[in-house]
């Protein structure tokens, strides 16, 4: 059975996913039917799940999940999640899931800061110390570091690149999907690639990481705790543990957690090559000072 496909922006959902599923459910083959039933019966959970988790719970492949999403008129699983979120949550939750329309300014401040602090505390507990040590060793060994990030992760990638350069690590940030794909395909075993993705399901960075891994690079991911397609293509995982969901438009929890990991990683790298780092920081400080009035 076919359905008219909508031309949508990657950040937009499709209207009425549950209604669309009900409309075509009778004509779906067994595997697609199981996925459709799982999404319908666990819609609130699916909003917080990755495509890998949905596939496992529905006893299907990731490709089958994506195929059903496309049959519903979406480009992929992400758009279906956005649509489900819009159907299930109150409008204020697109700003911050803990807020209420009648919250006072003081209450808004308290809730936002509490959420951010919780993300930092949870991330510290989830972060594997051994994985951090492995990441430090891989970066020190690498001839060059490539940092990938798309969307909200792009600013984190650029910040990390800046921080790496300040301590003398040859680094480059790629925040364009085409540049990422080219850069990844040209990597080799002397390159370390750091991919920043909260969901671990972003198509562009997932593709670039897969290409880099195939080219022989050591791949490192800064991603939220849980199963995701990205994990199949990385050697070292640095987990955040932020409660952000994919439909929240301006939530900072994931980025704050990512920045904390970047901060810790840079500090560990600087201490591991203390003399060089201090010298490079001093030299770059002098250069940057000349730019200040």
Automatic annotation (TrEMBL):
Gene Ontology BP annotations: carbohydrate derivative metabolic process
GO function terms (MF aspect): carbohydrate derivative binding; DNA binding; DNA-binding transcription factor activity
Pfam families: HTH_6, SIS
Xref: Gene3D superfamilies: Glucose-6-phosphate isomerase like protein, domain 1, Winged helix-like DNA-binding domain superfamily/Winged helix DNA-binding domain
Keyword annotations: DNA-binding, Transcription, Transcription regulation
Domain HTH rpiR-type stretches: 15-91
InterPro entries for the chain: Homeodomain-like_sf, HTH_RpiR, RpiR-like, RpiR-like_SIS, SIS_dom, SIS_dom_sf, WH-like_DNA-bd_sf
Domain SIS: 135-275
Classification via CDD domains: SIS_RpiR (cd05013)
PANTHER family registered for this protein in UniProt: GLUCOKINASE (PTHR30514), HTH-TYPE TRANSCRIPTIONAL REGULATOR HEXR-RELATED (PTHR30514:SF1)
Record-given protein name: RpiR family transcriptional regulator
Species this chain originates from: Mycoplana dimorpha
């Amino acid at each position: 059975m076919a359905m008219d496909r909508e031309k949508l922006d990657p950040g937009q959902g499709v209207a009425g996913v549950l209604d669309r599923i009900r409309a075509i459910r009778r004509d779906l083959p067994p595997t697609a039917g199981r996925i459709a039933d799982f999404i319908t019966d666990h819609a609130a959970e699916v909003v917080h799940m990755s495509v890998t988790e949905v596939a496992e719970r529905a006893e299907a492949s990731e490709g089958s999940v994506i195929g059903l999403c496309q049959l519903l008129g979406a480009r992929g699983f992400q758009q279906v999640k956005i649509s489900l979120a819009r159907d299930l949550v109150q409008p204020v939750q697109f700003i911050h899931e803990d807020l209420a329309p009648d919250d006072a300014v003081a209450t808004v401040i308290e809730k936002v800061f509490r959420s951010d602090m919780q993300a930092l505390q949870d991330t510290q507990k989830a972060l594997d110390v051994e994985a951090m040590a492995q990441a430090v060793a891989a970066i020190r060994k690498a001839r060059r570091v490539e940092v990938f990030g798309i969307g909200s992760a792009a600013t984190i990638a650029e910040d990390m690149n800046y921080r790496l350069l300040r301590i003398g690590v040859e680094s480059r940030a790629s925040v364009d999907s085409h540049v990422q794909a080219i850069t990844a395909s040209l990597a080799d075993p002397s390159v370390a690639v750091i991919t920043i993705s909260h969901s671990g399901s972003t198509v562009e960075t997932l593709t670039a990481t897969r290409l880099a891994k195939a080219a022989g690079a050591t791949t490192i991911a800064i991603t939220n705790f849980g199963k995701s397609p990205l994990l199949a293509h990385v050697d070292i995982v640095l987990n955040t543990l932020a409660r952000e969901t994919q439909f929240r438009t301006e939530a900072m929890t994931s980025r704050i957690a990512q920045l904390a990991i970047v901060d810790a990683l840079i500090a560990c790298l600087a201490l591991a090559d203390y003399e060089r780092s201090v010298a490079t920081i001093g030299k770059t400080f002098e250069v940057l000072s000349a730019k200040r009035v």
